[in-house]
């Protein structure tokens, strides 16, 4: 079953200029990761420091493998741009509703 993940990021105000370049690099790796079906970047129209990544994964397992990789060998410096830890919400598609 596919999985949709919302990764809610609140950037430090002083990091809004540097974030797009870092996110481009990070998301190129994410999009190439096995099981990633795509990632959209949603920018808050009223708050330039608020970014949501809308990720689609082939399975819960593919997402879990990716998160494990990001916590280890695939770690990035994104945390240095964030005002606080990102909020992750995971959703499965309801096919019977």
Automatic annotation (TrEMBL):
Gene3D superfamilies: 3.30.70.100. It comes from the Bacteria. GO terms for molecular function: monooxygenase activity. SUPFAM superfamilies: Dimeric alpha+beta barrel. Residues 4-70 form the ABM domain. InterPro entries: ABM_dom (IPR007138), Dimeric_a/b-barrel (IPR011008). Keywords: Monooxygenase, Oxidoreductase. This is Antibiotic biosynthesis monooxygenase. It comes from Cryobacterium algoritolerans. The lineage of its organism: Bacteria, Bacillati, Actinomycetota, Actinomycetes, Micrococcales.
């Amino acid at each position: 079953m596919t999985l949709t993940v919302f990764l809610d990021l609140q950037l430090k105000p002083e990091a809004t200029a540097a974030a797009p370049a870092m996110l481009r690099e990070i998301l190129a790796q994410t999009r190439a990761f096995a099981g990633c079906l795509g990632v959209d970047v949603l920018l808050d129209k009223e708050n330039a420091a608020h970014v949501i990544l809308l990720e689609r994964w082939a399975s819960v397992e593919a997402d879990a493998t990716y998160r494990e990789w990001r916590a280890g060998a695939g770690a990035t410096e994104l945390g240095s741009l964030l005002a606080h830890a990102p909020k992750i919400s995971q959703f499965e598609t309801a096919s019977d509703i």
